[in-house]
UniProtKB/TrEMBL annotation:
Protein name: Uncharacterized protein YbaV
Annotated region described as Disordered, given as residue ranges: 1-30
Repeat found in the keyword field: yes
Domain of life: Bacteria
Matches recorded under SUPFAM superfamilies: RuvA domain 2-like
InterPro entries: Competence_ComEA_HhH (IPR004509), Endo/Exo/Phosphatase_dom_1 (IPR051675), Hlx-hairpin-Hlx_DNA-bd_motif (IPR003583), RuvA_2-like (IPR010994)
């Protein structure tokens, strides 16, 4: 009986985790004009802490991004990387 309850609990946790991840991927966008480097690195595919820090540094030096395409001006952020992340970012 205990194993069955443990299995049910594990299954429920897995479903909750998968559900949480799906909602994070679908609805949560990070602002490239206000997010920290850590938040950018976590939210964007293919962007680690160094590229995220480059985004923040660029923003601090040149001011807020006016369009999402402006992100391509950041060293290390090419067309494909920006395109891949359009669903994850906002101004």
């Amino acid at each position: 009986m205990t194993q069955t309850r443990a299995s049910e609990a594990t299954g429920e946790q897995a479903k909750a985790s998968a559900s949480s991840k799906a909602s994070d991927d679908e609805g949560t966008r990070v602002s490239i004009n206000s997010a920290s480097a850590e938040a950018l690195a976590q939210a964007m595919n293919g962007v680690g802490i160094k590229k995220a820090q480059a985004i923040v540094s660029y923003r601090e030096e040149y001011g807020p991004f006016k369009t999402l395409d402006d992100l391509k001006q950041v060293p290390g952020m090419g067309n494909s990387l920006v395109e891949r992340n359009l669903a994850h970012i906002t101004l």
